[in-house]
Amino acid sequence: MSDSVKSILQSLDICSPLIEEIIATGRIKKVPSGQVLIDKHSQSDEIPIVLEGILKISRHDKDDNAVFLYFLEEKEICAMSITCCLEGKKAAFHVTAEKDTLLWMVPMSRLDTWVATYPSFRKYIFASYQTRFDELLSTIDSVVFSKLDERLYNYLLDIKKATLSYNIHKTHEQIAQELNTSRVVISRLLKKLEKEGKIAQYRNRIEIL
Description:
The chain is an alpha+beta fold. The protein is built from 8 helices and 10 strands.
């Protein structure tokens, strides 16, 4: 397993001494599909790097209504977890495995030293923050400026991009929860997208055309 971790870290242009430190101090963690890794009550001293699979980041209100924010894919680190750990705060978001996911958990206690000592790691962290910031802006634009049918179609395209599959195995109810709307509305909009030739619907499966 350490060889696969080393290969992924090398592809990020992280220097060899730091790669050895990350491998020596980290640990593997498997998260089955659908399992919550971080919720709004969590407070962790470890940061996940995705080796395989996909993590879904969402925001929940006090009534547990959720809105999808973005996906974390292979080679990506959870920038929001870093912020919470640095400030000693509980998470204000949910992280759920979209599919079976393999993570490399690194200790938060070493992060300051690594950022200060290794320019390659500092660049990696800052790039992660920039990517997440851009995705959050895109989410805000979608919520504020886009119609719900556009948000729905963009959401489906995001899943296709993250999973590298044209087939999306989600129920109408699951999609409605993630877009913070009703199942009836989602069913109507999916039917509209189907009539427009953008998708095809099957039992618990949607195909992007």
